[in-house]
Amino acid sequence: MSDGNPSASAVAAAPFEPTAFGTFEFSGVAIDERTATVSLRYALDAVRFEETVRFEDVAWPRDDARREVLRRLARLLHLLAGVSYFKTAAPPRIAFAPGAGGLDGADAPSPRLRALLRDVYTLGLGEFAYRNGVDVRERGALPDAVSLPADPVDLPATGRTLVPIGGGKDSVVALEVVQRAGREPVLFSVGRPVPIVDCVAVSGLPHAVAIRRLSPNIGDLNASGALNGHVPVTAVVSTIALMTAVLHGADDVAMANERSASEANLVWDGLEVNHQWSKGAAFEREYGALLAEEVSPGLGYRSVLRPAGELAIARAFSRLRRFHPVFTSCNAVFRIDPARRGTRWCADCPKCRFVYLALAPTLEPSDLRGIFGVDMLDDPEQYDGFADLAGLREHKPFECVGEEAESLLAMRLIAEGVGEDGRPGRDAWRDHAVVRRLRDEHLSGLPPLPADPHREADPFVLDDAALRALPADLRDAVVAVLGAP
Questions:
Q1: Per DSSP, which regions of 123-248 are E strands?
Q2: Where along the chain do its domains lie?
Q3: pTM for the whole thing?
């Protein structure tokens, strides 16, 4: 490096010892308006990191209000994306280079932002902490000094809504809600994975893309002994989405985070461990309040699926058959390493199993064989994985899957031959190998399902409080798309 510090490659060549590092620094954020690129810089003592986010096919705005909102969002992105580099050593201290901390350009974040960062770097790293045996509550102490935030910036309403598309069923249903509400949607993704591009093509809607490049040295550091694990990536993607919304003239971001995302996988040493923490309701509330008070009150951020459970979402998606041949929720498709990247469904992971199970009460075995290529519920080797979804053996897997109660209800519906309308007589799944064993070992002793489980069982009932939190047009659309049949 030009400053005399060891180069990243030199550091990576030697074994990486996480305990040798004392401070993680937010070094700075820069915007190149000509290329619509944001550069995010960090340091772990002598090790430097630089990540970039480039917004494709869009010009940087000329008006002062949108430029200022983008500047504040870029600083917020800098602070949230740092979690990917902080975790390499999870050192005891966090520092801010001059001008790198607050949304207003001060050296430390505001009290509200400081509270959000504390949660992102502890609760957001809960799974990382559990898997690595690292108590993140004792790491990453933020500076005590805080600055007052600048006044939020008013933006004119446009009526356009940005809808992040992940290629899975949830984002497709969120798009259906936004369209049912009569809003003008713009689809968004980070990168162009094949399932996302295919879903966009089916929709026929405009597609805004951002390209995120992690720091080039992070892979070598991980290979040489850096701590690694799950990070709250939705917090990062949400901020990139908001910047994209401002750049493309949208004033609302409609996320597809459902109610079950708030359920923890387990509690470890008093720390709640939730793989989906940054998709949960608590993060959404905290993040939304920060946007309103320190960025722009006219820039909306909400999940339109928050009132619904996964089974209600799966039921709604089952009707959107034009997307069935192209969607996927399998993480193998989104791996960074092309050599390990899948094509559509691996049919042997928690996400594949959960989506298969969630759709089974509504779709026929032939439908799901057409989507997945195999009949997963008729494969005895899949039994343990399905049982784990409902917590029948161990805790819910560390994946974006539904609540244990939702999985159990889906199992009961197909085992007892109950159809989408809540009436018995749908026996398509009863004799499948996994279903038979679940019925024999876990389900046979349970009391009968209510006469209409779609109205009386929690996973199918829309949450009233979450509905009331939505604007009226989205609230009505959610009821129309996700309500009882």
A1: 160-164, 184-190, 207-213
A2: 8-303, 310-461
A3: 0.91
